[in-house]
Write a structure and sequence with these properties.
Order of helices and strands: H
Helix content: over 70%
Strand content: under 5%
Structural class: mainly alpha
Radius of gyration: 34 Å
Oligomer: single chain
Largest sheet: none
Low-confidence stretches: none
Number of helices: 1
Length: about 80
């Protein structure tokens, strides 16, 4: 690796190296945070899609039970009308 370039303003390189290191750590942490946020958004999207599918299945089950109850009531009415 090559040595870092000298600054035109002069002064000790140790003054700038610590600042550059801190800035690099901040940038690295920002990149990590962006990746974590992207992962969380992806997982949240998957969870929302799963909840939508679950909700559709739940409503299908509710409508199925309602249809069975109505069919049972209709059969009972037909049996009463036929003198059963």
């Amino acid at each position: 690796m090559s040595a870092p370039a000298r600054r035109a303003t002069g002064g000790s390189r140790f003054l700038y190296d610590s600042f550059d290191l801190a800035q690099a750590r901040i940038e690295a942490q920002e990149r990590v945070d962006e990746e974590r946020r992207a992962g969380l958004e992806y997982r949240l999207g998957r969870i929302e899609a799963a909840l939508e599918r679950l909700e559709k299945r739940l409503w299908l089950a509710v409508y199925g039970v309602a249809a069975a109850v109505l069919a049972h009531a209709a059969l009972a009415l037909m049996a009463v009308q036929n003198g059963g």
